Protein 1
Amino acid sequence: MVALPSDFKWGFATASYQVEGAVDKDGRGPSIWDTFCATPGKIADGSSGVTACDSYNRTAEDIALLKDLGSKAYRFSLSWSRIIPKGGRNDPVNQAGIDHYRKFVDDLLEAGITPFITLLHWDVPDELDRRYGGLLNRIEFPLDFENYARVVFKGIPRCKNWITFNEPWCSSILGYSTGSFAPGHTSDRSKSAVGASSREPWIVGHNLLVAHGRAVKAYRDDFKAENGGEIGIVLNGDATYPWDPKDPKDVEAANRKIEFAISWFADPIYFGKYPDSMLAQLGDRLPTFTEEEKAFVQGSNDFYGMNHYTANYVRHLDGEPPADDFLGNLEILFENKRGDNIGPETQSTWLRPCPTGFRDLLVWLSRRYGFPKMYVTENGTSIKGENDMPREEILKDDFRLKYYDDYVNAMAQASTFDGVDVHGYFAWSLLDNFEWAEGYETRFGVTFVDYENGQKRYPKKSARSLAPLFESLIKKN
Ligand code: PNW
């Protein structure tokens, strides 16, 4: 029978800048996303996270909502600049920031909900970006991140599930190559063929890996024995299929795309080196691990955190890739050679549901990395045109309900039949929220948030579908 292990934890996920608001409250310092949103033209609807879902002021309401939906766990992120407003290891700690999150964790536990904390979900303290280039600084950034992590491990000892970074691929590529995310560096900055965007993302990715490794070592050396918890990183990536399955070059390209998106980070963590396909294309633009860095990075995952949304077809390209190529010399398509479509359109140009892809990628990752313990830390969908519908229509989100049903069943099959060692699942997202460069026009929530009327929350139909779904799949002891 298709089933999930009896210790399986499921719940919903959010991120600080997307839901908290209250950007000036209790001594919070600005992050690179505050600065980015204030730059005209960066956010589709000109909005920002200034108010968002006002979750900073509504912790009790959000916890009641989680309880009401049957959520066993909650994944959320901390705002680094609430805890250390300027971010650095010699900067003052803001006790009000720690107290806020410590109380939130206490209240979640009181409600029977297991907290999963992400230390950094993209909102780097702005001061660090201005002081030394933020994520670009190979020496300062990992040290400051380690210090911040230590402050948090010490200040919030009741949390036992830790994630260092959310999606380093997005921080690196969207922040330092396409420029669609903060801090918005783009290839426009470089006049030469081998300019900023052809180097910066690989430097940022490297520094995030080392910072992750440092925080994990700090946790294992000084906190794990007492705290008893576990720590890992969250990586995003799509399932891929060759555009022409009979063309070995497309088959290779489909594999290479996953290597450029996921193995970029996972290979150093599990094997201590970057994938050969990346070394071959990027050469010395990919930083080399020093022995010290390698010691921090290799073996630094207690679990694999997987964010997953979609699949695509991959077609190889011939010839030399441009210097700022980050995909692996290939193109991404939603139709294959036969004209089959990967899945229906959503509000997000990059996202089309394809549940079989979820199972296939779970298997791909498990085989490559030795069947590690996994948590699915994000999975969910937007719906085409959802934001233009009246509220009563939005609440009948059968498209999202079916997405969750299909994807969760695909995961349960991978667990039952393929040996995938998955122990948790988080639906993205608990609430409609600030969807980064798309502002509030794209809704990912299982709960409708009425931004015009005091951020009032209305659970959609999908919100209540997850509890019975998991109830039917999780083995009883
Ligand atoms: C994830 N892409 O981001 C993030 O972790 C969330 O904060 C976000 O709200 C959610 O997915 C929905 O977008 C991604 O362009 C953003 O491929 C963009 C992409 C992938 C993930």
Protein 2
Amino acid sequence: MTLIEKLENNQRLTLEDGVALYDLDLFTLGKYANQRRRALHGNKVFFNVNRHINPTNICKDICKFCAFSANRKNPNPYTMSHEEILSILDNSVKNNHITEVHVVSAHNPDAGFEWYMEIFSKIKERFPSLHVKALTAAEINFLATEYHLSFDEVIDKMIEYGVDSMPGGGAEIFDEKVREYVCKGKVSSAEWLQIHELWHKRGHESNATMLFGHVEKREHRIDHMLRLRDLQDRTNGFNAFIPLVYQRDNNYLHVDDFLSSTEILKTFAISRLMLDNIKHIKAYWATSTINLALVAQEYGADDLDGTIEAEAIQSAAGANSAKGLGLQSILELIETSGFTPVERDSLYNELKIY
Ligand code: V47
């Protein structure tokens, strides 16, 4: 069967197929990805009203791509108190009616296990209906190592303290050689997958990211997708796959060539085609820019993430995302791109179709 016949017949694609998809022209690739996307989601573009909070930037890890960590190039170390976090949320809940808080921290050995966990129960106490999406597999691995706990023990604590779902961060690129080069010493690929598997096995859901556009090759991206597809076959716990476009400012990974928009759109389209068992492909606008994230909706993506309000990780590396996007802007952007905006909750239940 040729590659085109496989696409026509919705056949499962191999590593070689995935790499070969990059050789198709963008419009042919886009046609198949869009067909798959429309079969799943019609004309809908999903988003949520959320707030990203990054409570500390002090980190014992040394990822070369990171511009957020205060141990690297960022001269302003900080660790928020729980009261600070709660007062930010007071404002976001009151003025912006957020339904989700997405909490991602650096790996701060001085903050303490309780500091990491207790904020979740405090959030739940003050805002019982707010969805808490928190603790990447990289943070869980850090907490387990630092405090001599098993992954199961950390996960049990997360559930006890009120975490609802896990974000997809820390996946970077699973290929061991590239990983060793870009984020030596951080959670390994096998550990990242194991942590999500344990979380899924408890009946909880999560997302999966991939950081691309740095030193990885196309086959590493496809390999990354296939490792996720294998796990999803076993657990069905991933809601969304999120290809994060690498931002190159203020870090130690000297990459001169920024990806072309064509390569970025192809990667969205290919992820839609390879990941036949993950329902949503998120074009996280903070890394792809809002313009390309909207175009990506015609190339396999169906989601934009959310209003985010404030963002510190990607904006530290050059993304224009520090101030978030207003609800009205998101609605207008989706509508003027010809799509139907659908506000969703964190688990993709539809809250409002505009
Ligand atoms: O894992 C770090 C990435 C991630 C850079 O689950 C960078 O819904 C680009 O995971 N250029 C954290 N990216 C953010 C994240 C995320 C974001 C939005 C939604 C969800 C979700 C998850 O940020 C890290 C890392 O891969 N990152 N540095 C950089 N220079």
